[in-house]
Design brief:
Radius of gyration: 21 Å
Largest sheet: 7 strands, mixed
Distance between the termini: 16 Å
CATH superfamily of the largest domain: Medium-chain alcohol dehydrogenases, catalytic domain
Bound molecules: beta-D-glucopyranose, zinc ion
Structural class: alpha/beta
Order of helices and strands: EEEHEEEEHEEEEHEHEHEHEHEHEHEHE
Number of strands: 19
Helix content: 25-40%
Shape: globular
Amino acid sequence: MKAVAIFPAAGGARLIEIAKPAVDVIDDGHGVLVRVLAVGVDGTDKEILAGEYGSPPPGDDYLITGHESFGIVEAVGSAAFGVQPGDFVVATVRRPGTSVYDAVGRADVTTDDTYFERGINLRHGYLTEHYVERDENVVVVPAGLRSVGVLLEPASVIEKGIAQAYEIQRRFPVWRPRRAAVLGAGTVGLLATMALRLRGMEVHTFANTGRPYLNADLLEAIGAHYHAVAERPFVGSGTELGPYDIIFEATGYAPIAFEALAELGKNGVLVLSSVTGGKHTVSVDADRLNLEFVLGNKVMVGTVNASREHFEFGVSDFARAELTWPGWLARLLTHPVKGLESYEDLLHTLNNGKGVIKVYCEVSA
Ligand code: BGC
Ligand code: ZN
């Protein structure tokens, strides 16, 4: 079968031929064989392709890329739990290391320095025709979400961020978030806005691009407010629009996180989701920010990766979103590319596409 592999030493991607895995490569009966239907690509794939991030599994000189998967189960091992042939599934990304968190099924919050992530670091990914995974690492998706299931992995990271915010706020006897800001209107910003709208918040989403802008239209279609920062800067908006109970940062530009500290309302939570490899520095109003954090009981929390329950939250939110705004999620799937053999087109669109929200490969029908 075919797979898209990145060769870090030689540089670039190639289509390779590998053996189709059998369900019993997982020999305790917990294997699940999945035929891949669609795989999304994102900034992480760009960095892997550019040789800036990720490594092949030990012993291989290539990494099969792709971590945003969606597929259909073809076979299951004799002991497989909660999943059957014909089920649609999304697979989680991170695999356990050695910390106590890994041991209890929370590799997404590992304290290890090495991350094992399918399609990213030390484990092959899903841009291939079939893969085998353990039952506990696949999450069943209802057939009604078939056309949008490829968005579940990016959604899972957002769901984790929001779930953490709610968990943290259990420190208060009551938390009624009314107003949220989302920074960035890419796939993550759009999905975060959706998740916060589903929780009843007034959401203000900020990004650089002026109208006409498809992403602004999409945000307005779900009752959010889009602000191009040239017209309404984010800085000062917390005072102008009223305090933010939650701010979700998804711009990829770290200095904004420090501006967000100052916009957060009392008892608010700032969720950071950008994986930033740069070297930006900023000088901050340290005493004021510190004072406001202390007097205002504020929290800043990071979110990366996700455990299976966050994928499940994603499934629930997608189902709610489809009922609330039918067809909205599918509008994020702007750039389909057919077939693994079109991988050059896929990666080119990822790097240079115009008006891109989500680029993804339709691997099979
Ligand atoms: C993936 C996460 C992963 C992170 C860091 C993101 O693109 O969606 O699952 O943990 O990259 O490697
Ligand atoms: Zn990703």
